[in-house]
Each structure stands twice: as structure tokens, then as C-alpha cells.
Design a protein that fits this description.
Blueprint: E1 5-10, H1 15-31, E2 34-39, H2 42-48, H3 55-58, H4 60-76, H5 92-104, H6 107-119, H7 128-137, H8 142-149, H9 152-167, E3 175-178, E4 181-184, H10 189-196
Parallel strand pairs: 1-2
Antiparallel strand pairs: 1-3, 3-4
């Protein structure tokens, strides 16, 4: 019998994706659930909703709440946190590289390293030098990976994955899909794992 699987949709500029990226791998392994890592870009998703920026910037009270909430949760999970000097950062290059990593099996350590760079070290993850340093530290062939990440076929694949997110009705990150069931937000990770494991079921919606 195949193991249950969760689609994990995340964005490198997303604060709550940081929390989830840092803990989902171990949580899924303990639950006996496989992960499909789905990097995508929130910019086109927000534009489809009529926003030209992060809602945390568009609505300052919501933004102030988010940063305080992030600090509380980072402390809860024992994760380092350093507020980025620029938010949201451009995660396009990192997402392209992560798409290669998802195909080749090294996406989890790469994603964790990028999130750490962004939200714990205040490093500019849009810079090729930063991504190169991360790949080098992981013992991966940085020049080769960056070349493949920037190939037109991979750019198209990320664009199509982002378009797929819109088609599926995703409106934020992190998001989880289990057999068509959508869960949104870091605080729904455990619910998504329970659903995948068969611990939760409801009649079909509608």
C-alpha cells in the first residue's frame, strides 16, 4: 500500500513558510507521510487577487501582528529569527533552484538553508552569490545547478507550477494539499498530516 503524500506549497519570501520549511520534514517522517515539495511564487497569486504587494505591507496592523506572531512562534519552535531588512525578498532564483532540488532529492536541506539565510541571517537570497554559497555548503555542484535552474525549461516549469497554484485556489503560503483537500498556514501542518494519515475525515464539501 502506498504511503500517504502531502503536496507542500511554499514561498521563500513567506514568513510562515519559514516556520514550516524548518519543521515539516521531520514531522512528516514521524507521521509516515511523504512530501511533494512545491516551490512557487506568491506575486502572481497576489496579483490574481488584486494585490500588488504582500498583504502584510498593504495592511500595516496585520503586518505588525504578523511580525510579533512570528517572533512568538519562532521562540516556541526554538528557531532563530532576525527580521529581514527588506520584506518581501525576491525568491525567484531560490525557487528555480528548489525546483531542481525537488526533482533530485536535495530540496529539503536547500530550502532550510535559504530560509535561514532570509529570516535568521538577513542575507539577500535573490543574489546568485548567496545561493552559490548555500549550494557549496551543502556539497552540491553550484555552477551546474544554477545553469540548469536558469534554463528556459526550468523557468517554464516554475511558471507553470505557479499557474497551477492559482488554478487550485491557493491564496497564500504555506499551503498543503492532501487528496484535493486544502490546508493553509503553518498552524495547519499537523491537521494536514493527520488527514494524510487517515486520522481525520469529513464528508465531501458541498
Amino acid at each position: 500500500m502506498p504511503r500517504p503524500t502531502i503536496e507542500f506549497w511554499f514561498e521563500f519570501a513567506s514568513t510562515y513558510s519559514y516556520l514550516t520549511v524548518m519543521r515539516i520534514g521531520e514531522a512528516a517522517r514521524q507521521a509516515g507521510v511523504d512530501l511533494e515539495w512545491k516551490p512557487f511564487l506568491l506575486g502572481p497569486v497576489f496579483l490574481a487577487l488584486g494585490w500588488n504587494d504582500s498583504p502584510f505591507n498593504i495592511y500595516p496592523p496585520k503586518g505588525r501582528y504578523m511580525w510579533r506572531d512570528l517572533a512568538r512562534l519562532a521562540h516556541k519552535y526554538d528557531l532563530p529569527l532576525r527580521l529581514p531588512s527588506r520584506f518581501p525578498r525576491n525568491g525567484l532564483l531560490a525557487a528555480r533552484v528548489a525546483l531542481v532540488g525537488a526533482r533530485e532529492g536535495w530540496v529539503e536541506p536547500f530550502a532550510k538553508a535559504v530560509m535561514t539565510a532570509n529570516f535568521a541571517e538577513d542575507r539577500e537570497i535573490s543574489e546568485p552569490t548567496v545561493i552559490t554559497a548555500i549550494l557549496d555548503a551543502l556539497g552540491l555542484p553550484a555552477d551546474d545547478i544554477l545553469q540548469r535552474a536558469q534554463a528556459e525549461s526550468n523557468k517554464t516549469a516554475l511558471r507553470e507550477q505557479t499557474e497551477r497554484a492559482v488554478e487550485l485556489g491557493l491564496f497564500g503560503a504555506p499551503s498543503f494539499r492532501v487528496d484535493g483537500e486544502l490546508f493553509w498556514g503553518n498552524d495547519r501542518l499537523e491537521d494536514a498530516l493527520a488527514w494524510a494519515s487517515g486520522g481525520q475525515r469529513l464528508p465531501p464539501a458541498g
